[in-house]
Amino acid sequence: MSAAVENQRTVEIELVNGHGGADPRKWEDLFLPTPLKLENRLRAQKIEARLSKLMLCGSTLRRVAEVFEKEIEAGLRQQPSSLQMENTYVPELPDGTEEGSFLALDLGGTNFRVLFLELKAGQLLREKVKHYHINDALRLGPGEDLFNFLADCVQDFLVSQSMEKETFSLGFTFSFPMRQHSISSGELITWTKSFNCGGMDGVDVAALLQRCLSARSLDVTVRVLLNDTTGTLVAGAHIDRNVGIGVILGTGSNGCYMERASRVLHWERPHSAVHDVCIDIEWGAFGDNGCLDFLRTEFDDEVDAKSLLVASFTFEKYIGGKYLGDLLTFTLSALARDGLFPADPNFRKLQTSHVSLFEEESCAGEVSRTLSALREACNSDLLSTADALVAQYVAHVISNRAAQLVSVCISTLLKRMDRPYVAVAVDGSVFKHHPRIAKLMNKYIALLAPAHQFSLMIAEDGSGKGSALTAAIAARMATRGVARL
Ligand code: BGC
């Protein structure tokens, strides 16, 4: 039985056992986090009350889903929306005929990767990869400097492989919101995560990269420009043809899916033969127009105020790994202000890895590592086992909300696509390292889209392998004489 079918069964059993269906309040309850169990019942009740705005019930999630659907429609129609709904011009997924040698670049985090990949009959035969660190000066300085550095890295990589005289097609995974004009061109809309380079307004990032590569006399042509979600979808579809959605749940978060071409208004290329096309939603910006203000808490306000790019990427700040550690910190600080927690964690001492650690220990019924991490973060020896349980509870509440919100997006897409079964390819550090996020997502997606069969699968390295596969798809279409998208 597939994982999706198992999910479906589990939820059906819960419903039959009286947790849903007939009594709507019971269905609502299925979304609540596990209650806080402390010997001091009064303290537990006060903490639960203080965090109640972070606990979303079923009807709130349905409201988020309705808003998401409206924003999707508006975005596709090019009406005002917080969702970019960008046409990626990727109309085909792998079919096992992908061939050739490609370079792939992966830019999105503090590490930049250059990859060489060789494909034969859709299979990866050979792969070489080199990582380069992108320092603060490059991430926050002039865009030209960053792109010159990227080209230097490509040159260094090729020299290290003795391939600097060879000819290559390149797939550029640029994990930021773009306005795409074709499969190989697009402008940055805004930086996100930890990047904020100047001088990039209206600049085509593929053309800029091409210029920097050509200036180094490298015979490398940028053939495709893609987002990491697109790469993840493509890499996932290479493993399972049922993949129709790609999701990143890592430092940042985003999703893409295969949409009917007829529902997409933004086309700058002839597309009469295109049936479906991959749409990059850019759900990190969901709510930037205020449409999700009903969810926002004072803790979110603090996370936003302390972020690099204030008042943007609202949704990403609820779910992205870049922000969950700050959310844990500010929530514990608020409890400390109210006398419900003994100490204030120092800013940026608790990271998203701590959210995962606290959740992991909570699942195992342990507290020792939680306690020592808290003592270090708060610079205090005053913390007790009960305090560690409180911190684990906060980590659980914010993880639960993150899982719920991503699940709203995925379940809305499942309904929209309305296929008998859709596999969802997921990548990203939060999905891979958080001990219960996948389980929570399976549960919530099934509760929110009970009539739709799905499974979540890990699709690793969409930014590398997916990029090379996309370049191979573009090459395959060109040899078939399909008009260039
Ligand atoms: C970017 C997206 C990207 C996501 C995951 C977000 O901050 O806007 O384009 O897909 O991070 O890397």
TrEMBL record:
InterPro entries: ATPase_NBD (IPR043129), Hexokinase (IPR001312), Hexokinase_BS (IPR019807), Hexokinase_C (IPR022673), Hexokinase_N (IPR022672). Keywords: ATP-binding, Glycolysis, Kinase, Nucleotide-binding, Transferase. The keyword Cell cycle does not apply. It holds the Pfam family Hexokinase_1. PROSITE patterns: HEXOKINASE_1 (PS00378), HEXOKINASE_2 (PS51748). Residues 245-473 form the Hexokinase C-terminal domain. GO terms for molecular function: ATP binding; D-glucose binding; fructokinase activity; glucokinase activity. The keyword Membrane does not apply. Gene3D superfamilies: 3.30.420.40, 3.40.367.20. Pathway: Carbohydrate metabolism; hexose metabolism; Carbohydrate degradation; glycolysis; D-glyceraldehyde 3-phosphate and glycerone phosphate from D-glucose: step 1/4. One of its GO terms (cellular component) is cytosol. Belongs to the hexokinase family. This is Phosphotransferase.
